[in-house]
Amino acid sequence: MSAEEFDLIVIGSGPAGYTGAIRAAQLGLNTAVIEKDATLGGTCLNVGCIPSKALLQSSEHYHAAKADFADHGIMLDSVKLDLGKMMERKSGIVKELTDGINYLFDKNKIKRFEGLGTLKSATEVTVKKSDGSEEILKTKNIMLATGSVPNELPFLKYDGKVVVSSTEALSLPEVPKKLVVVGGGVIGLELGSVWMRLGAEVTVVEYTDMICGGMDRSTSKRMLQILKKQGMNFVLSAAVTGAEVKSDGATVQYKMLKDEKEESIDCDVVLVATGRRPYSDGLGLDSVGIPTDKRGCVEIDDHFRTSTKNIYAVGDLVAGPMLAHKAEEEGVAVAEIIAGHAGHVNYHTVPGIIYTWPEVASVGYTEEQLKEKGIKYNSGTFPFTANGRAKALGHTDGQVKILADKESDKVLGAHIVGPSAGDLIAEVTMAMEFGASAEDVGRAFHAHPTLSEIVREAALNVSKRARQM
User: Fold this and answer.
1) Which pLDDT score is estimated for 145?
2) Catalytic annotation on 344?
3) pTM for the structure as a whole
């Protein structure tokens, strides 16, 4: 057993874990982090958010060089893909950022233990190391931040080559001729977009009648139209039932929900992107009496405490959207609570972004949710086609929609399809955090010419004041 006693031990070094640990150390807590993998950063940094965005950016450049540059008067004789170089760039970005977390740990005097962290008691954690040895650490508080893993379908098991998860889809050795994506959510659309731009014929098979379930329905419809226009194929309201997998490809079987007609499609690679589940197995939760729900989520109170009061849980391990920025805020909140401050997370202002092109971003309520709750509202929209900056960029697909309370004009939600939607949503998120009205957003200066003017015009259009062209 280690002689040192910590104020806080964090199990997991993803966005929740490393951000929470750094904040705890800033507040004077003697902090340690246990990570089972060789690198820090968790799924998001190593095989999730960051590498996928690197590939999305590279594939966007490749597509632009092939399809868009001529419109700008830039003529190229030929465009060739060096997939190895693209993957090398992606890996380099990941390494720079993981090295950055190591630096921050050293700077803030956070002690790192490499191994699998398991709860031994309410004040003890066992570190199971790769060589088989174990070390027991003592602590006053524990933060569980172990993240999530891809859902595996029982009838479509991963083999890492033909049937792949998002992890393998980030490092395919060659561009598949045909790619089937099972699941029309964020991960499926983003990675499907990468390989489509690089030359794959992509078909998305989705169980529901819309892509990205839970999204504002009109926004979902608009994005579906745009992706179809780009060449992505969709089979909606269809249940995948299995696949005949061979060494060089697969035949994916599915059933249409409307008439139960059975269909199949051949492909080289199947990407199963049916969501993720909390990584709660093997944590030793039973040893301290911490329950989980049927999905494996750890149950917590309003202050992130589990049933064992000095053990906290955050990020993908608990209920709510599985988003890195949501996890970060929870990790910071726990550190502040332990240090005696008022840690808090406003879940109503957690933005969600899909990094396709154009991007999709949202925050707050959808129209469907407002109707379900009986909240009266006004809606203002404005298209990218009427914006000078969007025209100059050559990207005019999409619109901004802002929803505001009918009586108070308080902004209740926003939904954006368009270039840089993920950056534009930040303004509305800030407005909602401060309880601003649509008029407040509309009256604020927005430099010309910028894409942000579309947000302003949508806000003005809540009261039908937008300058339509």
Assistant:
1) 98
2) no
3) 0.96
